[in-house]
Each structure stands twice: as structure tokens, then as C-alpha cells.
Amino acid sequence: MPMPASKPDFDVLIIGGGPAGAAAALTLRKRPDIKVLVVERGDYQQDKVGEALSPGTRELLRYLGVWEAFSGQQQLNIWGNQAAWGSDELHCLDFIFTLHGSGWGLNRRAFEQLLADAVQQQGGELWTQSRVEQLARTEAGWQVQVTDAQGQLRHLTCRYVIDAAGRASPWSLQAGAVRVRYDNLMGLANWLPRADGQQTEAFTLVEACEYGWWYGSPLPDGRLAVSLMSDQGLIQQQRLAKGDAWFALLAGTRHLRRLVSLDGPQPTPRASPAYSARVTPPPDKAPIVAAGDAVASHDPLSASGIPRALATGIQAARAAADALFGDGKLKKAYHDAVAQDFGQYLGNHWRIYQAEQRWPRADFWRFRTAQPQLAPTTLVGRGRAQESLFVPDKVARRLLELAASPQPAHQLLAGLSAEQPDLPVERLLLAMEELLAPA
């Protein structure tokens, strides 16, 4: 007589304890019979980029059962966004004229700790300063190796995984998903004291520049979180990740420099990826679903990071619960909704960047505003350039190899796209226009 299968240690393992992972855990724990483990690499003590929360997030926090605690904790109201975008002058969007009223200037550490505490209060298990080392698929779900806070390697089993490990998470990709990456945006952040005589503004501020854009957000402790958003290649070429270079550029801004003190130390800014990407689901019925930036990451200019993390965490949890206890149809519906939302985001993203026309020849802006014009039947071949703004050098070289013999653009595109599924078709088309002359 065969031995019965052993009961898994957890029903759902959530990799990542940020807003997406915590939202997924709180959603799953609405069913007390679902045993949940959250594995978080940090300990909620480090400053993070993402310091303002839009007013429409309120209903998500209510659903998760943390609204009362949040409203008592976060006291700095944000009344709108100011932007010098498309001109040197500041323009303002006041939240007071929206349905939900003011937003919040976040104490991000306290906010994430609040969510983590709520997970534990609702019966979820949370391991901090821990990291998943390996996932191995089994008939019953997954075998998992985790290094815990004491440095001990722990072995456990679970039925389902929610990947909430961020933009660069490898876990969904290991299960067969593909991450399609649209740009190379990076953020370089410092947390700075305000200038003498400057009150903490109740507005966030965005200021465009030739090499990208700056973002400033007031914090409850009186400081300002200041980030430079630029492309990875430009950051490397100009050595912008060095403190002196970063502060020199900040001193050259028109609006943001007035709000912060530029005296004293010039710390090295903290770098973090900020690129736009979408993860297509694994081709089979692998018991894993992604949430937050691990499923779709948006440009920070959209100001949707935390609300989208909470919303996708909720929906990913529902898909996981449906896979375990229902008919499993919610997962496809969830991924379809993510794809539709991301398509709308791309259109809005292009229109917003297109509104800034002061530096049309600058690489940062040309990359984001160019639109492919190549007709599908155009014969292409005979390279006229060796490098492209729109694809990595190795892809440019491969494109030139494929174009050694003139052929219709759609045929060349199909071959290159099959080899480079992680690059958007639009970028491949733009590279073809840039590198190849019509035969």
C-alpha cells in the first residue's frame, strides 16, 4: 500500500515582503486555512525610494485591514504634484480637486513595517533577513531552500509560490516566464535636509533636464527624498553615481536646488533599477504567479508603484487561492488584466514623454519619443551603422548579420524577435531603421 504524501510545510510561499508580498499575504490570510510564509531579504530598517502615496490607495488599504493603523501612523499630507515638464515653469496638479483628497508623504520604513506586522497579526509567518536560494518543482508543488537570519539553510515544501521579489526577480523566469524590458532607466537617490528657511512643501516635484529628470518628495522627518532618473548608459558615461557629480547636477536644477541644502557631505547616491518591463507568464501550469514589479514594472513618473504593488498582490493571491481550491481560471484572467493595463501604460508613457520637446536630439529623450516608421514590406539590408541607441551592441551585431542579404523588414523582424523575446518589437524596429539602409 503506497504511503500517503506528506503534508507541505506551507500552502503558499511569498518571496518578497514589500507592499506586493504583504498585500498577497494579508489577502490569503482572509482564509484562516491557508498557511502562508513570507520570506523577506531585508529587515524594514533601510530608507527606500517611493516616498509618496497617491490618495486613491485608501480603498486598497481598507480592504487589507490596515487603513486605521495607516491613517494614525502617516501624518504628512501631500496635496499634489508640481512639474517643470515641457517648459521651465512649474505646473501643478492639486489632489484637492480629485475624488479622494490628499495623498501622503510616506515614512516608507514605518509603512512597510506596518504591513509586515499586520501579516503576522493575521497569522502569517514572516522571515526577515532571509533569502530563497532554490526552488525545485515537484508533483505537489515546490521544494524550497531558504537561508534564514541565522545563516542556516532551511529546507521546506509548499504548494504554490507568489513571486513578489521585485523588478530583477529570477523566480518566475526560472519557471519559464519571459521578462520583456522596455528601457534602462535607473534611479540615483539621496535623502537630504531642506534648505534654511524652506518649509517642507506639501507637493512632490518633478523637473525635466537634458539627461533625464529629477524627483523630490517631502518626508515626515523634514528631509526631502531626491532622485535623479536617467539611463544606465548615461549614468556610466557621465559617472553620475558618484556623489560629487550627482550634487553638481542637482545644483544646476532650477527648482529643486532651492528646496534642499547643498552644504555639508555629499554622500554617494543609492542606485536602484527603475526600468519598465512586463513578465509574460510561464508556458505551462507552473504553480507560481508574480506580483508587483515582478509581474510589471512601470516608470516611476507614473507614480503608481505602491498602489499597483498592493493591487497586484491582492489579485495574485486570489489567483493562487483559486489554483489551490478552485478551477484555476483566475490566473489567466489576472495575467490578461496585467497585459491590458501595461498596454495602456505604454501609450500614456509615450504621450507624457512626447510632451517634453526641449531636447529632441538628446539620447534620453530620443529613446523615449521615437516611433518606428518602417513598412513591413520594405527591403532592408546593407548596414549603415554599427551601434544603435535602441538595442544592446550584441543585438545590433546580430541584426547586421541577419541583414547580410536584403529581405523584407517583416521577415527580418520575425527572425530577430524569435531570438530576442525579451526585447519589445518596437525597439527592434527602431534599431532596424537606425542600422539598415533600404536596399
From TrEMBL:
A single GO molecular function term of this UniProt record: FAD binding
Family annotation (Pfam families): FAD_binding_3
InterPro entries reported for this sequence: FAD-bd, FAD/NAD-bd_sf, Flavin-dep_Halogenase_NPB
FAD-binding domain mapped to chain residues: 10-326
Region called Disordered, residue ranges: 261-282
Official protein name in the record: Dehydrogenase
Native source organism of the sequence: Gallaecimonas xiamenensis 3-C-1
